[in-house]
Amino acid sequence: MFGNITDVPGVKVGHAENSEGITGCTAILVENGAVCGVDVRGSAPGTRETDALDPINEINHVHGICLSGGSAFGLDAATGVMQFLEEQGIGVDAGVATIPIVPSAVLFDLFIGDPKTRPTARMGYEAAKSAVIGPFANGNTGAGYGATIGKLAGPQFCMKGGLGSASIAGKEGVVVGAIVAVNAVGDVKDPNTRETLAGARNPKTGEWIDCCAYLEEYVQSEALSGTNTTIGVIAVNARLTKAEAKKIAQLTQNALARTIYPVHTMLDGDTIFVLGTGDKTYPVDYLGHLATRAMEVAIIAGIKAADKLDEVESFKSIQIMST
Prior knowledge:
Helices cover about 25% and strands about 25% of the residues. It is of the alpha+beta class. It comes from Lysinibacillus agricola. This is P1 family peptidase.
């Protein structure tokens, strides 16, 4: 196993980055189609095609998911993923055209790098074209390239977020994988020890600014709405209905609540997609439990792997400074 979401059969992942904009996108491809559900828990989301995933609606399978930086501008990246899949003949047969279904979610990464340079359809195409089954780097990769966290006291106190992925093998052959881009307004803490790993930090003194304590004292956040979010995907080699996929997405949001403080705020757009790629059924609560565990590991992996970028410190860089 590679220890990432491509351990789930039928899932490929590719990335594209732009160093000038310090931004990027990640394409998660399911070329054979997958049942998909979504849960949007944050109050400032940037999404595309999520209405199609409602269990009452007609579309039953998707062919990819696009996670992107660039705020709402980054939704263009999903068009490139669609273009690549269309060239491969992958999508819904509409008679006169084959239409790939590619839901998308974006994060705001315009604080660092050139804010006028955002993921484009071309970048989405490149990410999809590069998608493979196998290892890839966590941290400053794809949609997590320009991600930052700990902005509740103001973006000047932020640290580096990042992209993380993980997988868990359960009983009876089930495999659950997670991929996530962490760009939260809050701090990221170890779910077992509650130790702060990265978040709001005074760059001059090196002191932590606990985001929850800050909110209690000052009432009002210094962060701007729509400038933060955690977006991710769970994949499982199980047969799911759209309603079951949505429920697992809801359960997976527990991983964000166990690692990000505060989370699901008016300033975040937290969005989780769930893909079912298999033909064997399992209890939804069991899959939700494994999905939550995998997402926790992915969040922490993304934070611990991120490198300092554009003078924004990371978990790794402050560890080096403290030794």
